[in-house]
């Protein structure tokens, strides 16, 4: 649906060429098209509706007499508004702590462990940092093992305590350890569940309280559409997180989740995951995402 939105808008506006200004009447059908496309990309109804209203306000009255391609004018307005909706400027992570403590949150399977590794690798190779990874999933030994494998791959130490089943203690001990060893970033990977549940939320809220991270990041699978919004809401209510990581953008998704999450929790999307490998990480650029959505 989104694939040819630019083209469709262009066609719809072709008739306008040389006919003066964009009016409420001649823009209505086109905006319906935009709204339908947003809904198809899993943007929630209210966001899509607010969005098209805003675009309409911006578009009406624009002079198309002198514009060679009136459709392109509307595409530009749509693109600018989408960019604005997803956060405007690029925002990275705050690394001013000593050490900087970063807490990863999210459901099981969202890509937390993989992203923890990617972020450690990114900070090590691109930002000249000395990160420590911390395994706090006390329920799944396989998860701890997975983080060790990731750490080995990128040459980053992983702190874990196999005999301890208290994630608060492990994370507090890990920060102490990091200070002793001179690590300047501590990335704490936590246990997820398949769905939001009270036990998980209490546990991560306790870890959050104990370690007071400079950055709490919420990791979400971009393929999960509307569910992504509800999960983001639930985690944000408990953790008031600082940013969102959208994973699996290499998959077959237009990325509508980016728009919905941003407009519902109003937190910036900081990075995206674009594959299973350790270098498949990108800083989130709202304007690039708007282009991807528009096709
Ligand atoms: P966790 O349970 O939240 O720690 O999730 P994992 O890090 O174990 O990731 C779950 C699955 O998703 C694994 O098979 C990962 O390889 C895969 N995965 C993670 N991030 C990405 C991504 O950006 N793209 C793709 N295609 N797969 C990913």
From TrEMBL:
Keyword Lyase: no
Protein origin, superkingdom: Bacteria
Catalytic reactions of this protein: GTP + H2O = GDP + phosphate + H(+)
GO cellular component: signal recognition particle
Location of this chain's protein in the cell: Cytoplasm
Record carries keyword Cytoplasm: yes
Keywords: Cytoplasm, GTP-binding, Hydrolase, Nucleotide-binding, Ribonucleoprotein, RNA-binding, Signal recognition particle
E.C. number(s) listed in UniProt: 3.6.5.4
SRP54-type proteins GTP-binding domain mapped to chain residues: 268-281
Single Gene Ontology BP annotation: SRP-dependent cotranslational protein targeting to membrane
GO molecular function: 7S RNA binding; GTP binding; GTPase activity
Binding site residues for GTP: 106-113, 189-193, 247-250
Domain notes per entry: Composed of three domains: the N-terminal N domain, which is responsible for interactions with the ribosome, the central G domain, which binds GTP, and the C-terminal M domain, which binds the RNA and the signal sequence of the RNC.
The family this protein is said to belong to: Belongs to the GTP-binding SRP family. SRP54 subfamily.
Record's subunit section: Part of the signal recognition particle protein translocation system, which is composed of SRP and FtsY.
Function description: Involved in targeting and insertion of nascent membrane proteins into the cytoplasmic membrane. Binds to the hydrophobic signal sequence of the ribosome-nascent chain (RNC) as it emerges from the ribosomes. The SRP-RNC complex is then targeted to the cytoplasmic membrane where it interacts with the SRP receptor FtsY.
Stated name of the protein: Signal recognition particle protein
Gene name of the record: ffh
Full-protein residues shown: 1 to 295 of 449
């Amino acid at each position: 649906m989104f694939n040819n939105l630019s083209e469709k808008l262009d066609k719809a506006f072709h008739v306008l060429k040389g006919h003066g200004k964009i009016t409420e009447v001649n823009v209505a059908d086109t905006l319906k098209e935009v709204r339908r496309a947003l809904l198809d990309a899993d943007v929630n109804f209210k966001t899509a509706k607010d969005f098209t209203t805003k675009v309409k306000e911006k578009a009406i009255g624009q002079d198309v007499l002198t514009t060679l391609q009136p459709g392109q004018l509307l595409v530009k307005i749509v693109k600018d508004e989408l960019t604005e909706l997803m956060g405007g400027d690029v925002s990275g992570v705050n690394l001013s702590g000593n050490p900087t403590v970063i807490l990863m949150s999210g459901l099981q399977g969202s890509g937390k462990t993989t992203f923890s590794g990617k972020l450690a690798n990114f900070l090590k190779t691109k930002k000249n940092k000395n990160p420590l990874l911390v395994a706090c999933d006390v329920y799944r030994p396989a998860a701890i093992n997975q983080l060790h494998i990731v750490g080995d791959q990128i040459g980053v130490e992983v702190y874990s305590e196999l005999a301890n089943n208290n994630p608060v203690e492990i994370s507090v001990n890990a920060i102490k350890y990091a200070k002793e060893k001179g690590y300047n970033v501590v990335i704490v990977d936590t246990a997820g569940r398949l769905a939001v549940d009270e036990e998980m939320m209490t546990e991560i809220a306790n870890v959050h309280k104990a370690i007071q991270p400079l950055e709490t990041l919420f990791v979400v699978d971009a393929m999960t559409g509307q569910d992504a919004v509800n999960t983001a809401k639930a985690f944000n209510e408990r953790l008031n997180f600082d940013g969102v990581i959208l994973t699996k953008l290499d998959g077959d998704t237009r990325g509508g989740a980016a728009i919905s999450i941003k407009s519902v929790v109003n937190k910036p999307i900081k990075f995206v995951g674009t594959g299973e490998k350790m270098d498949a990480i990108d800083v989130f650029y709202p304007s690039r995402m708007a282009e991807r959505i528009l096709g």
